[in-house]
Amino acid sequence: MKRCNSNNGDWMNLCAHTIALGPRLLGFSLVRKTAKTLLCLLFGLLLWVSVPTANAVTPSQIREVTLFSNQALVTRGAAVDVSKGLNEILIGVDAFRVDSDSVSAKVFGDGELYSVQLKKIYLKEAPQENIRALEEKLRELKASRKALADSKTVLKKKEQFLASLIDFSKTQVPEDIKTSFPKTEDLEKTMGFLGSHFEQIHKQRQTLNEKTESVDKEIQVVERELASLTRSRRKEKKGIEVLFNAKKDQQINIEASYLVQNAFWQPVYKAAVPLDLKAVNLTMFSRVNQKTGEDWRDVDLAVSNVIPLKGASLPELPSWILDIPRPLPRKAAFSGGVALRRKSAEPMAEDRMEAPMALEEAVDQEEAEFVTAKKKELPLSFEYRMPRKLTIESKDKETMLPLFTKTLKGKFLHYAVPKRNPVSFLICKATVDKELLGGPMNVHFGTRFVGKTFIKEKKAGETFDLNLGADREVKIKRKKIEDKVKETFFGKFERDTVVRTMAFRITAENLKDKALTMNILDNVPVSRTDRIKVEDMKIKPEPTKRNYQDKEGVLLWSFDLKPKEVKEIDVSFVVSYPKDEPVLGL
Question: For labeling, which of 29, 281, 365, 374 is most exposed (least CB within 10 Å)?
Fold first, then answer.
C-alpha cells in the first residue's frame, strides 16, 4: 500500500513539475498536451491499483453452513501469510446473491482488524466451476449438433447426385445408345448400384436424425440447468475484503461469514403407524435446496427453525350464520367474495388422502434406524447439527436429511365433518414436547405407504390432531330428511313471513371387527339479526359439547362405536324470515 501511494506521489510531482516548466521549454500548446497525457496515464494507473483482480484472491474453503428456511449463513476459513503493517486480504465468494450487510470476519493473529466489506470483481467468464462445466458441455453439444447438421447436408448432396443420374438417363441419353438396348446384366448392375446407395443414404439419415434428437434433448437439459443456476448474465466474482494491521510477519487465520440467497430447507415428516395402533413413530426430515452458486463440500451443516414455517390442518367447521344482505364498500365486498369462493373451491389436503388398505404383517426383523442430527436449543429457536460432514452441490435438486425420530403416544380416534367431507379420518391426539414446525407428512401403516397429509405448527405442550388418513371401513353419511317452506299470514308468525322447517340425519357405521371412538362435528344456524329467527331446535342425542372451540353453533359428538354398530344423530329446526328479503347462509 505504501509503495503504491509513493509511486502515485512521484507521478503527481512529475506532472506538476512539467506543467510549471512548460511555458519556458515547450510552449503553452505542448504543455497542455503533455499534462493531459500524463494526467490520463496517472488516472489509469490509480484505477488499475484500486480495482482488485482475480489473482489477488486468497484461497479459502467453506467450513460451516447454517441453513434457514429462506437463506443460509456460510462460514469460510483461510490461512494467510501477512507482513508487518497494513494488509489488504481478499477472500473469494462464488455465491450469486450475498447480503452485503451480513458480511463479517474474525481474524486470529497478532494485530488489529480495521474493516470488512464486500467487493465485486468482474471476470470474462463465470467463476463457478459447475457453471463453467455446464457451459463447456453446452458448447460441445452445440458443436456436435453442427457436425451432425453438416453430415446431413453432405448426405443430401449425395442423394441429389444419384437423383440427377436418373434424370440424366431419362432426358439426355447419348445418340450412340439410342438404337441399342442395354444388356440385362448392365441394367441389373445399374439398378443394384442405385438401390444400394439410396438404401445406405436412408439408413445414414435415420441414424443422423436419431443422434440429432438425442443431442437436442441433452442441450435442453443443460440449458434448463444453467437457467436454474445463473441469476445474472454478468460475469462477476464477489470477495470479502479484510484490512488487517499486522504487528509482525506471521500467518493468520480468517473466518468470514455471510448470508446467501437461493438456499432453504423445509420440514418433511414420516409417520409410521404400527398395526396395533399403540403409538406413532414420527421422523422429521429436512428437504434441502441450494442453488447459491457455491458447492458445499465436506461442511458442518446445521438447519435452524429461526423462521418458522406454516402448514395446513384437518378440516374445521365455522359457525353457521344467517343474516340479511348489507351494503358493503365496493372494494371490501369484491375482495371478500373472491376469497370465500377460492377457499370453498380449493380441495383440502385431507380430501386427497388415500384410505388405509388391507395391510400385510411386517417381517420379523428389526428395522434399521436413521442417523439423526444433534439438537441445540437457542434462546429464541433451536437448530439441528448433522453428525458428520456433508457435501451438497449447487444444483437443481433436493437433498433429504433426517433430523430426529420420536415416539408419540396419544389417543387414537376417528374424526368426521360430514357436512364438509363424507369421510372418516383416523387421527392421533398427541402432545408436543418441543416446538413442531408445520410441513407435509407421509403416512405409513405397517410397511405400506398410504398417503400424504400436512401437520400444523405447534408449540411445546399443545395438543394436536395427527391426521393418519381416511378410513373407508367407517361409513359417514349426512342426509337432509326434511325441507319444507310455507308462507303464513296469521298465527304466531308475522305477516309476509317465510317459515322453513329443516331436518338432517347423520349416520355413523363401524364396519370393523373392533370398537372405536368417533368424533363428529356439525353445526346449526345462528342468526345475526332479529328479522331471522331460529326456533324449535331439536337435537338427538344431545351433543357432547356445544359451541366447540368457541365457535357459536358448532356441535361435537364423541361416542364409542362397537363392531358393526350404527348410530344416528338427528337435528331439526325452524327458520322464519321476511318473504321479500333473501337470507345469506341458508
Answer: 365
Query: What distance in Å separates the CA atoms of residue 411 and residue 277, rounded to the nearest whole number?
Result: 9
Please name every residue paired with 239 in a beta bridge, in sequence order, or none if there are none: 92, 119
Q: Model pTM?
A: 0.54
Closest CA to 522 of 375, 405, 377, 420: 420
pLDDT in tens, 224-275: 776 766 554 456 678 899 999 999 999 999 999 999 988 989 899 988 888 8
Q: What b/e sequence results for 523-547 when a residue is b if at least 16 CB atoms lie within 10 Å of its CB, and e otherwise?
A: bbbbbeeebbbbeeeebeeebeeee
Where residue 111 falls (left for φ over 0; alpha for ψ -120 to 50; beta otherwise) is left
C-alpha cell read off for 227: 437457467
What are the residues facing 266 on neighbouring strands?
A: 287
By residue count, the chain amounts to 586
d(Cα 385, Cα 379) in Å, to the nearest integer? 16
H helices then E strands: how many in the chain?
5, 29
What is the rounded CA–CA span in Å between residue 57 and residue 59? 6
Q: How far out from the chain centre does Cα 135 lie?
A: 25
Give Cα separations from 445 to 68, 165, 442, 491 (angstroms): 32, 74, 10, 60
Q: What is the pLDDT of residues 14-40, one digit of tens each?
A: 444 444 444 443 444 444 555 555 555
Q: Where are the beta strands (DSSP E) in 308-392?
A: 320-322, 374-377, 382-385, 390-392
Domain ranges of the chain: 2-50, 54-126+233-260, 129-229, 263-312+348-470, 474-578
